[in-house]
């Protein structure tokens, strides 16, 4: 049994997260400035990094996605660890070549 992996969109998700991050950072900066003005000097501040915010948003999107089946992932992980998962070496090689071709464009 081979699993077809298509539409890997990590770069697209990264782009969308970065765009959303920039918009949210602007709003956060405005809100932060208002809070700082209201709190006065000497107040403690905690800031979450933009990368952490992007990861949080991506995790939420993955959790909401219908294309992610945790039960299936667990099943495959178990099969791999037990040596029961069939591996199609030719198909893997073909997919790597396709990916390499896409990355070189």
Descriptive keywords:
single chain, 105 residues, mainly alpha, elongated
Description:
It is a single chain. The chain contains four helices and no strands. It is mainly α. It has two domains: 7-39 and 49-68, no CATH class; 69-105, no CATH class. The model has no long low-confidence stretch (mean pLDDT 81).
Secondary structure layout plus pairing:
Blueprint: H1 10-39, H2 50-64, H3 70-81, H4 89-103
Short description:
This protein is mostly helical and 105 residues long.
Estimated helix fraction:
55-70%
Main sheet specs: none
Q: What is the total tally of β strands?
A: 0
Q: What is the count of structural domains?
A: 2
Q: Could you give the order of the helices and strands?
A: HHHH
Integer average pLDDT: 81
Number of helices: 4
């Amino acid at each position: 049994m081979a699993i077809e992996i298509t539409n890997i969109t990590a770069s697209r998700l990264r782009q969308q997260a970065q765009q959303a991050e920039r918009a949210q950072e602007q709003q956060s900066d405005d809100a932060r400035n208002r809070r700082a003005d209201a709190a006065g000097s000497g107040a403690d501040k905690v800031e979450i990094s933009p990368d952490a915010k992007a990861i949080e948003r991506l995790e939420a999107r993955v959790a909401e996605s219908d294309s992610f089946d945790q039960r299936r992932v667990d099943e495959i992980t178990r099969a791999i660890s037990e040596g029961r998962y069939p591996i199609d070496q030719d198909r893997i090689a073909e997919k790597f070549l396709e990916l390499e071709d896409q990355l070189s464009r």
